[in-house]
Amino acid sequence: MQREQRVEISQAGLELAIQEIKDDMFDTPACDYTVAKLLSHCGRFDDAEQLIDTMLLHWGASPDVVALVKKGYANIDALNDPTAMPRRSTAVSANAASA
User: From which domain of life does this come (predicted)?
Assistant: First the structure.
C-alpha cells in the first residue's frame, strides 16, 4: 500500500490549485471531493471536513455523493491520524439508517 504524505504548499499556491481544479472539473460532487482531498494532503483538515460536511446538503444523498462523502472522511482520517478508527459523519449515518 502506498503511504500518503501531507504536502507543504503556500496559501497562494493552494488557492491557485483549487481554482485549477474547479476550472477543470466545474461544479460537481467529484470536484468538491477532489478539493477536499487536496486540502487534506496539505494538512487543512478542518477546511476539508467542512467541505465534505456540506456535500450532502449541496448535492443531495444520491449513492454516488454518499460514496464520495465516505471516501472523503476516510481520506481525512487516514492523513490526519493513520492509527485512528474511521469515523462517519452524522449525515451519512442518518442517510444509511433511513435507506
Answer: Bacteria
Interhelix angle 63-80/45-59, rounded to 10 degrees, is: 170
Measuring CA to CA, which residue among 61, 56, 25 is closest to residue 38?
25
**Per-residue pLDDT for the chain (99 aa), expressed as one digit of tens each?**
444 555 667 888 889 999 999 999 988 999 999 999 999 999 899 999 999 999 999 999 999 999 999 999 999 999 887 665 555 554 554 444 444
Q: String of b and e for 17-36 (b: at least 16 CB within 10 Å)?
A: bbeebeeeeeeebebbbbbb
